[in-house]
Amino acid sequence: MSKNISNLSGRIGLRDNLFKQISENKLSESPKDINEIAKEHNIGVSTIHGAESFYEFLRPSHREKKAFVCNGSACMCAGTQEPLKKRLKEKLGDDKVGEMFCLGYCYENHAFHYDGQNYAGNDINKIDEIISGNDLEQEKFYSESFASTSFLMDDKLSDIDKFENQLKKFINTDKQEIIKSLLDSNLTGRGGAGFPTGMKWDFCSKAKGDKKYVICNADEGDSGAYSDRYLLEDQALKVIFGMVVCGYVIGSDEGVLYIRGEYPKSIESLNASINLLKKQGLLGDNILGTDFSFDLGICIGQGAYICGEETALIASIEGRRAEVDVRPPFPVTEGLYKKPTVVNNVETLAAAAGILLNGAEKFSVIGNKKSAGTKLVCFDSFFNNPGVYEIEMGTPMKKVLYDIGGGFKEDIKALQIGGPLGGVIPIAEAEKLNLDFQEFTTAGFMLGHASIVSIPKDFPMVEYIHHLFEFTAEESCGKCFPGRLGSYRGKEMFDQLKSKKTKIPLKVLNDLLITMKKGCLCALCGAIPTPIMNILKYFGDEMKNDMVKEN
Ligand SMILES: Cc1cc2nc3c(=O)[nH]c(=O)nc-3n(C[C@H](O)[C@H](O)[C@H](O)COP(=O)(O)O)c2cc1C
């Protein structure tokens, strides 16, 4: 069934893509009858309805609101959101203020969205100006490279001439040589799963297909993370360069950036770069007089965290409900519209570009084979030096937290590293580790995308677990039972504890966590037990009065 929908949606493809049509129609002043869209695509109307009812931003309850406060983990821990919500409600009305998940302003908090733009820090003090439509001068977050060679923050692709010169070189380089460089560099995917990038490009280049696609996964939803946002807004040409070279290597003539709708500035920045490159003939047909053509577009996410998972992301672009698909087949053989597809994270594509420009060896000598090169790390507002930093893999976490991050402004008991699905690490345990994917996993945590959210000493851990279950219950795609039901059951347990109705039956909670870990289809509901189990292990004492051992 879903194969048919993918094929039907693929007949129109990316140019007038079904998801874009569905979302633009739903958001327009006078939406047309969805039967018309269904007819155009020869798809059942239930499919269109299924898709449009999936996304937060397309729901009437969302569209009736005017402002949205960030409910990501970093803003929650900073405690800035309740007063912010109160002020916005006073201005706009009680029923006009909703919530959005992590807007990527973890370095200054107080984050909110109003009329298509994001605001944070002291911006609430200028709410009248914002409402009257004046553009606000906004401060940029701090960024710095601490690497011996910068692959991600340098200026080697900072303008269109540099882009053209480098592209000229690489689209005339042997494809196998480019794949070899990536394999030699030991670059692994930065989106979480850690698959070797050279291998992914190699598999896709060998896959059979009359059409192939390159997708840049710019759905960065992990709270605490704004490193992809940094690259999209400050290094857009580098990200695009990675996509174009990938297209050349795998034999694809079309790519798409799936950017979350919560990042309006990133969308603007990418749109501007794509238009410029098209004007200069560096995207489109017969680039630089060669027989290589590559077109690029943007798909704007509509408020669903699960769209970061690659199969859900593909389903979303195809205009299906963004539900996770079972793998294999993997996207490299059966991806977008069932055609061979490379899905890479923003940082992976930028790193691939950086490797080609600087040489694979410079990347591979940093860190070790499984954790090579440099990584962007984001610090939240509890750090003395909040911002995004390029750091060499293998760097001791003590150096990361205290020398680069500058230590903390107040007492911190734990860090959530790698987003809501990453581990919750007591400070003392974090200090024993190095910035290394495997070390984190072996110790029972996860480095993931390397965003760091600080949990202050006085922040109740039962609140934090409630937040994690609430997030998962809200964001689960609903396809598998353990995920859909388990996340709600977990949330209910902590709702009841908060309303002082019942204590947590520890045995039932453990059963639930094990069932979710073993039985869920993807790492949204399957990985959320990791931080919760970390909290139970390391902070059990803090919660002992909230738990009963036997049920
Ligand atoms: C629930 C969930 C959310 C994810 N979110 C993202 C995301 O926001 N960005 C991303 O690049 N990868 C995300 N991933 C990983 C992707 O499925 C995929 O592995 C990645 O995009 C592949 O690119 P890479 O090889 O460059 O890492 C997510 C995975 C899961 C299970």
- Trace the largest sheet across and list its strands: 5-11-10-14-12-13
The name of the CATH topology of the largest domain is Rossmann fold
Helix content range: 40-55%
CATH architecture annotation name of the largest domain:
3-Layer(aba) Sandwich
**Number of helices, counting only DSSP H or I runs of 4 residues or more:** 24
Low-pLDDT regions: none
Bound molecules: flavin mononucleotide
**Tally of structural domains:** 5
Distance between the termini: 43 Å
Please state the structural category: alpha/beta
Structure commentary:
Helix 13 crosses helix 16 (346-358), helix 21 (461-475) packs antiparallel against helix 22 and helix 22 runs antiparallel to helix 23 (506-519). The chain has helices at residues 2-12, 18-27, 34-41, 45-52, 60-63, 73-78, 81-92, 127-131, 160-170, 175-185, 197-206, 227-234, 236-250, 264-279, 310-317, 346-358, 360-364, 397-404, 427-430, 437-442, 461-475, 481-498, 506-519, 529-539, and strands spanning 67-70, 97-100, 112-114, 117-119, 143-145, 213-218, 254-259, 295-300, 341-345, 374-379, 387-392, 412-417, 423-426, 451-456, 504-505, 547-548. It is of the alpha/beta class and 551 residues long. A 6-stranded mixed β-sheet has the order 5-11-10-14-12-13. A hairpin with a 7-residue loop joins strand 10 and strand 11. The longest helix has 18 residues, at 481-498. It folds into 5 domains: 2-53, no CATH class; 62-131, Glutaredoxin; 143-364, NADH-ubiquinone oxidoreductase 51kDa subunit (Rossmann fold, 3-Layer(aba) Sandwich); 374-456, Ubiquitin-like (UB roll) (Roll), CATH 3.10.20.600; 461-548, NADH-ubiquinone oxidoreductase 51kDa subunit, iron-sulphur binding domain (de novo design (two linked rop proteins)). The mean pLDDT is 96. 43% of the residues lie in helices and 13% in strands. Bound molecules: flavin mononucleotide.
